[in-house]
Amino acid sequence: MKQDDVDLIRVAKQGRTEAFEALVRQYKAFVFRTAYGILRNNMDAEDVTQETFIKVYHALRGLREERTFPSWLARVTVRTALDWVSKHKRQPSVPLDAEQVSTRTDVHASADIRMDVERALDGLTTEQRTIVVLRDVQGFGYDEIAEILDIPIGTVRSRLHYARAQLRELLTRGDTRGDTR
Question: What is the pLDDT of residue 112?
Fold first, then answer.
């Protein structure tokens, strides 16, 4: 984390709204990607992003070490997204529209792969999707994920292993469903 970010967080902790707004601008995409990875729905992810930043605004003064902000923010995001799932009990949806896919061969193949991965992610449990998003999408280390999810590091490794195995199974099963590519 850059020193400028640490300084910005310190100023935001003092209640300076312009500093907090700068934090929101800087971390909004990170929060959205994390929420979307769990929820698989744009509108829900936007709502969770907004709710996350409201929670962060109220709790920021309690953050002891500014350098832990990214993992702390991820923890707030994950918990908010999981609460959202519990509260709304919706199945995730993939907002990919066939009309959005270009007809160029390389783009088409890339879109097909993306759609297969999106469908496979939808086949994971929320717990599995969360751990895959934190590790493979957001790039958190095992120790950081353990802290974010408040679970032992061995559990992180185990869950990630089984989530990836399930993802691989879903992708393999998808390849045998009779696609004519």
Answer: 65
